[in-house]
Protein: Tripartite-type tricarboxylate transporter, receptor component TctC
Amino acid sequence: MNTITRRTFLALTAAGLAAGMAHAQPQAQPQDWPQRPIRIIVSQPPGAAPDILARLLGDKMAKTLGQPIIVENRPGSGNIIGAQAAARATPDGYTYYLATTAPLAVNPYTFKSLPYDPVKDFAPVGMVGGSYFYIAVNNDVPVKTLEELIALAKSQPEKISFSSDGTKGFAGIMGEWINKRAGIKMLHVPYTSAAQSLQETIAGRTQVTIQATPVAMPFVNRGAIRPIAITSPQKVEGFNVPPVAQTLPGVQMFGWLAFVTQKDVPAPIVAKFNQALDKALKEPDMKKRIDEMGFTSEGAGTPAALGQYIKAEYERWGKITSEIGMVAD
Structure:
């Protein structure tokens, strides 16, 4: 029978405890955080609206937190590359993900498998804001309202087309949702980017386009396309078109942006980041810039409130994708 001496037992126990503590102990203590630069992962390319917002907010938050904030772009694969990088980051309080609605609420219903779990891998930090979507038409299309567009589409089945940035994107889903609720058959023409889909409608190769307000506003302002509805639940100040829901009750879409981080980041660190974010969002020049970009924001809110919102959105998008018959692939 093998025996272990008291000295050997104590040595092994001490070694095991040390290894366990080294593995479990976070690299940053809440009271000392931050002590080095903070990283924000964005799953869009440089120059895209989320990237611009991340950099503007990062500059302001860096002044509050006393450390530089670096934006890292990880675009591609329907936001999957960025979400995966954020999910796999060390939970030390130094990596945050500026997530859009897609990776946290939509992708689970449009992709059969994901290399991250939107529910289990992330902890909510703070809301940034978001934007609605314009339903807009080429200037030569003889409609000025959504009702008139529906009537035109009914009179010409599959001859009216709408452009989007992809079948799994918000614009594509919204177009199919309008088709379903209105009982029409607009032809869906997906492109590889929002910019390309917008240009195709301006050129008249498609009659309708669905675009996030920050993307569409410069073209609307110079009269290149004509908006006929917006995807808000009610009329929004500054957008002089009626809501889609006025014609098709319940049909509304808001593309939001929110910060999340890894599940095991200590709550006090999350709270510090949240407070710095809220302060940045409420500074007058930042609020003005957000409005000019076509976004809306009411501040960061609390992590708990954001968690409840994301959960509700996750469930809502499940119902939307089911209603339009979208199949994950």
